Amino acid sequence: MLLRSLLLTFVFVCGLFGQDPPDWTAPHEPFRIVGDVYYVGGIDLASYLITTPQGHILINSDVPKDIPQIKKSVEALGFKFSDVKILLISHAHRDHCGGSKLLKELTGAKYMVMDRDVPVVESGGKADFQYGKRSENWYPVAKVDRVLHDGDEVRLGDVVLVAHLTPGHTKGCTTWTMKVREAGKVYNVVIVGGPNVNPGYKLVKGSVYPTMAQDYELTFRTLKSLPCDVFLGAHAGFFDMDEKFARMKAGDANAFVDPAGYKAYVSDREQAFRMALAKQSGSGR
Q1: How far is CA 260 from CA 88, 183, 209, 218, 238, in A?
Q2: Mapping DSSP to helix (H, G, I), strand (E, B) and coil, where does residue 190 land?
Q3: Which one-letter DSSP state was computed for residue 43?
Q4: What does the pLDDT profile of the chain (285 residues) look like in tens digits?
Q5: What is the maximum alpha-carbon separation in the chain?
Q6: 64 phi/psi in degrees, rounded to 5
Q7: 3-state DSSP call for residue 187?
Q8: Which of 197, 172, 159 is CA-nearest to residue 48?
Q9: Closest C-alpha to 167, from 215, 112, 224
Q10: Do 41 and 84 touch, CB atoms closer than 8 A?
């Protein structure tokens, strides 16, 4: 798991300071995960479609050039892209919200973002505490239609999503939870926003984000408190999507039910955070 996380960090940094990594824009077969929750993202950048008779919710618009592929995936599943009524994101980095302006223009969806990420989103990335000074990290500005706060609910039809503030990776990083019924059972779905400590993040004595370490502490307390049956995340690598998708294709109806994997992932990321904190504090040498 640690190797996987290191590879994800490498891919993320390459995307920030160069061309988008191939996995960011390479298409993946769309599929139903559980209940009315569908995967419509790429090989690594995850996007989720949650369907209702009253319209649909999309989580993560990815980079702008991914929008045609997301549209194609939504339509391949038999749904209308124009029926996307609500757009949500995991956090205000270009690889998860860069396509929001275009998606709003194409669908008319209402854009809902956690309060602490709104200034970054509405600056097109320029207000980002770590990456805002470099133009390759900017993205088209999209106006937020509803400002969310920790614990807010997003409702459409019978679907209820809860926004959990899990800050650190960005100030408004958001983990989404919902309950889904499948074959007479109710599953707790968790879509992790992102708990990784990126290279260059200052956990100790940081002037632009002085509460970063405390925010990560909050994030791990929150993640550990959430009941989870179906573990998903902002990147497919968070939850070993490739391996689970292969099992699902082979007939495993419960391939994405992974409470143990969720706990292991959160524990691994918390350990990585504590190692980074100790190193920056001078006690990890």
Answers
A1: 27, 21, 33, 21, 13
A2: strand
A3: S
A4: 444 444 444 444 444 545 677 777 799 999 999 999 999 999 999 999 999 999 999 999 999 999 999 999 999 999 999 999 999 999 999 999 999 999 999 999 999 999 999 999 999 999 999 999 999 999 999 999 999 999 999 999 999 999 999 999 999 999 999 999 999 999 999 999 999 999 999 999 999 999 999 999 999 999 999 999 999 999 999 999 999 999 999 999 999 999 999 999 999 999 999 999 999 998 654
A5: 56
A6: -55, -40
A7: strand
A8: 159
A9: 215
A10: no
Query: For the stretch 233-259, what's the b/e string if a residue is b when 16 or more beta carbons lie within 10 angstroms of its beta carbon?
Result: bbbbbbbbbeebbeebeeeeebbbbbe
Report the C-alpha gap between 122 and 144 in whole angstroms.
7
d(CA 73, CA 38): 10
**How many degrees, rounded to 5, is the angle at CA 152 between CA 146 and CA 154?**
65
Integer Cα distance of 148 and 174 in angstroms: 10
* Cβ contact 195:219 at 8 Å: yes
**What single-letter DSSP state applies at residue 81?**
G
pTM over 0.85: yes
Type of residue found at 241? M
